[in-house]
């Protein structure tokens, strides 16, 4: 089993490094995930996307369409890729504490 | 030895059963030479990955031993072994047949069947609703109007009697619309008469990997019917090896309707560059580029030369991997392996090592990858082995180097 170490706590991850229980997610968890992605400093822009994704998932149990993410947060697709170089599915969703999406992503 | 064999209950019936299921294709001519295992890029990296042993069990009719062999799902069905086999035994077909006929849907590993189910229920593998699909297209249309400086630009939706019907992967709607946008821009510049469908647009078919032909047929047929409904002359498939091979395989195996060619988008790009309808600037991408031959394209569908012609049209420093073309190594994620997270370690750390070494040896900075599945695997490998390379789809490279014809704006951002 994989674990993410956050302030002495062990957060259980799946084989692909996504969180297993979204309830365990905190902002500190997001920071550690982000650091592992090579994003050392989470800006307000990052947080806007991370919080949107986390709340959307809590409500709908599914990741939003990228269209919806852009429309509701006001970011362009290009900007999202600049903020999360590994992309919305594997980068932003992982940091926001969503489980791994199924399908070819 | 005889006693030991007896306890395994060998018998001709299981072997005959499998033989019948693959239309009497004869795998009994196996010489048991082991070239398959020697040719498998992963047999010495992952325990239990031994095609020769699997084939022996099958030939002896050892039903239980075959069905409990981890090989059934560890195998990427990449057919690298078939390249080396002196008798040309198609291991990929054998493995797919065994998966499809001797396991229930509940027994498939990972989330393979979950995705198949979504495809059966919604017509696409990410359960994108028709409203969300059309809204995403509207958005892309607006983005392209701006980028092309052409307020009259329209995405040709459900256009009748077009030359080309373009089908893609649900991920290009849900997560990566920038990739679809690049393709639509290329089509615009080439000025081709094409269409995309409002009803059936996802060309992927995960039942290619479960081997369940009932599901495979049900997922595939609507796409062919839609090509006919819209009267398109050809079906063009996105940069997805699975979708391309599944579509061609289904077309050959089941389709009885009107005949039409099924081509990968690289083959169309090759044609359009050859006809002078796409002009590419050779000074844009100067870093060394290598190309990954996906098994589904090169070995299974013979797409080899077109990719080289496209890349060499604008890449100055092109470097082949070794081996390459139909001899190339699988990325390690083929055959549905990425959809089986229980094997992620074997997929990335063990199998990935082979591809990582191959990429590193080229010294390339960019890896051109014409398959979504290979792309995900190679991205995982790049990260794990810290390769420092950038992995790009061929269309994305072509779009970057596009020379806009006079009168058309289209900044390449």
UniProtKB/TrEMBL annotation, chain B:
Entry protein name = Fe-S oxidoreductase (Putative heterodisulfide reductase, subunit D (FlxDCBA-associated))
Keywords assigned: 4Fe-4S, Electron transport, Iron, Iron-sulfur, Metal-binding, Transport
GO MF term set: 4 iron, 4 sulfur cluster binding; metal ion binding; oxidoreductase activity
Which source organism does the UniProt entry give? Answer: anaerobic digester metagenome
Q: List each copy of the 4Fe-4S ferredoxin-type domain by range.
A: 19-50
Q: Which Pfam families match?
A: CCG, Fer4_17
- Transmembrane intervals: none
Keyword check for Heme, yes or no: no
